[in-house]
Specification:
Blueprint: H1 8-16, H2 21-28, H3 33-39, H4 50-63, H5 65-79, H6 98-116, E1 120-123, E2 127-131, E3 134-138, E4 142-145, E5 151-156, H7 168-190, E6 201-207, E7 214-220, H8 222-235, H9 238-243, H10 257-265, H11 282-292, H12 300-305, H13 312-319, H14 329-366
Parallel strand pairs: 5-6
Antiparallel strand pairs: 1-4, 2-3, 4-5, 6-7
Helix pairs in contact: 1-7, 1-8, 7-8, 13-14
């Protein structure tokens, strides 16, 4: 099976869960996690439906119609109102043979557009980002070059903006994905002299309310860019993760399920509920986390609060006073919560018993 190339979604998901060594290794090795999840008996529902895919393509075509006139108007309005309005835009041809040819053609078009000092729309350019020593080829929806020579990433999504606001979770995912494109653009800019500035505010374009008309919002991705950059630095140590694996470890989906499960479990995972919307192996990892009683299955915020109490059994033991240092603030809080729960249950039991006696007395008086 041919390795699956890294894309912006995969890199963004890595940035969202930087502690997951399993995903880092599998993505770095190009393992098809969809096929892997099916072979493990936990097929993923992660991904976009065919209907959503077609709707997204239709909306993107509408946004880019007439040479991208509407898209450039939104960029001018939301990000660069002081610039000259985009009356006529350049849309260079980015056709080339192979990914290497397309990335070279994109870099040339960006340089020419910067020198031209005019509004330029690059439709589906191809960028290369160095990931663990290998190029990952990334294709943003669009990149706009401003008259002052600065560059902006445009991300087009099919989820709606209702009254000017969109689903925060979906906006966050789009911001992480756009941050990957910003990093790749910065690598292209660094090869030019002088290096053009890549905007850290990207343009998110979505359908307005329940129509097919475009609405746009500027999204600051500096935080997401920094997190992604840190994770890419960690990805350069994939060899260290691989070196710790048992000799002969293989993730081929056609292996017997027992052998494949053992291979996957040999790499540590950091499951969180957010993985369900970002990773193909989420169902498998969730089942394992629940079986092991891992507190990560209950959410990252709770896991962070509990410190080194990594399982539900250890948390309950600490709360009941059988283990743990009473001077530890986390242990003390758990024991106080356990006492309050016991008192509340006792109060409810006593209250229920009193109410039952009162009802029987009232019934006797009515006879």
């Amino acid at each position: 099976m041919a390795p699956k190339a890294l894309d912006a979604r995969a890199l963004a998901a890595l940035a969202a869960n930087p502690g997951c060594r399993r995903r880092a290794l599998l993505d770095g090795a190009g393992v098809d996690k969809t096929a892997l999840a099916s072979a493990l008996g936990a097929p993923s529902a992660f991904g976009m439906s065919q209907f959503a895919f077609m709707r997204g393509n239709a909306f993107e075509a509408r946004v880019k119609a007439d040479g991208g006139a509407e898209l450039l108007r939104l960029v001018h309005e939301r990000l660069d109102p002081a610039a000259e309005p985009p009356a006529h835009a350049r849309v260079p041809d980015l056709t080339a043979i192979g990914p290497e040819g397309r990335t070279a053609r994109t870099a040339l078009a960006l340089r020419e557009a910067t020198e031209a000092a005019a509004w330029t729309l690059l439709d589906h350019p191809l960028l290369a980002l160095d990931v663990a020593g290998s190029p990952a080829f990334l294709e943003p929806d669009a990149v706009v070059v401003h008259p002052d020579g600065t560059w902006t990433v445009v991300e087009i999504k099919s989820f709606p903006m209702l009254d000017g606001a969109a689903d925060p979770a979906k906006v966050g995912a789009a911001a992480r994905q756009s941050a990957v494109y910003v990093l790749a653009l910065e690598e292209v800019a660094e090869r030019l002299d002088p290096a053009p500035r890549v905007h850290h505010r990207v343009l998110l374009v979505c359908p307005k309310d329940f129509t097919n008309l475009p609405a746009a919002s500027a999204v600051d991705v500096r935080k997401q860019r920094a997190v992604t950059r840190r994770q890419l630095t960690r990805l350069t140590r994939i060899e260290d993760i691989a070196d710790a694996l048992p000799e002969g470890t293989c993730f081929a989906p056609d292996l017997p399920r027992e052998d494949l499960t053992a291979a996957v479990e040999s790499v540590e995972a950091t499951y969180a509920p957010e993985c369900l919307s970002a990773c193909e192996l989420a169902f498998h990892c969730r089942d394992r986390a629940r079986t092991e009683g891992a507190v990560t299955a209950l959410g990252r915020s709770l896991r962070a609060e509990l410190g080194d109490l990594t399982t539900v059994d250890r948390v309950l033991a600490a709360a009941h006073g059988t283990t743990g240092d009473p001077s530890d603030p986390t242990i003390a809080a758990l024991r106080r919560a356990a006492r309050l729960r016991t008192e509340a249950l006792e109060h409810a039991r006593v209250g229920t018993g009193t109410a039952a006696v009162s009802d029987s007395q009232e019934a006797a008086a009515c006879r």
